[in-house]
Amino acid sequence: xxxxxxxxxxxxxxxxxxxxxxxxxxxxxxxxxxxxxxxxxxxxxxxxxxxxxxxxxxxxxxxxxxxxxxxxxxxxxxxxxxxxxxxxxxxxxxxxxxxxxxxxxxxxxxxxxxx
Amino acid sequence: xxxxxxxxxxxxxxxxxxxxxxxxxxxxxxxxxxxxxxxxxxxxxxxxxxxxxxxxxxxxxxxxxxxxxxxxxxxxxxxxxxxxxxxxxxxxxxxxxxxxxxxxxxxxxxxxx
Lengths: 115, 113
Hints:
The complex is a heterodimer. Chain A is mostly beta strands. Chain A has strands at residues 4-7, 10-13, 19-25, 31-38, 42-51, 54-57, 64-66, 76-78, 87-94, 105-106, 110-114.
């Protein structure tokens, strides 16, 4: 019963490096999203997708790119990492964005440090 | 715009005390959903409860209870007879229609033995 799987769990980058945070779910969920969690800031939405081929920006999209080529995968790309992107990143999915019987299922998070 | 306010940043209680976590929300929609999530020290996010705007019935699940009051736009969470395992960060969240979930900033609860 995998649910939402995020890799890696930990990552250290240098300023300017690029990387992709992976997120995969095996529940056939249409809706997927990325949040970042910073101390005192709660969870803030970066990008989300309501289905394959469809993505949209959340509250804090700058510096991040996403794509959704399959229902299962929703990778988050940092093109040029900055120290301000040091955070814990959570991927989450649900059956659909508006399904009132479908709470968000979260991955275990990726802790990213940018030096 | 929608907004969730958790005014209590940190709460500390002694084991077996009751504690209430406050959540106040803002939305102009008549149809919306409210949620509570728990984040224990291990870091994962655990869904606790969902309530839609048409159901103001309070809910009790073991030592947990939720009080939804549309008149005050509040969805408060009470833990009765708190235990050390209740120590966590608790998030209240709001979703209206077909829009993403918006979270409050969370309340860190510490239960001391």
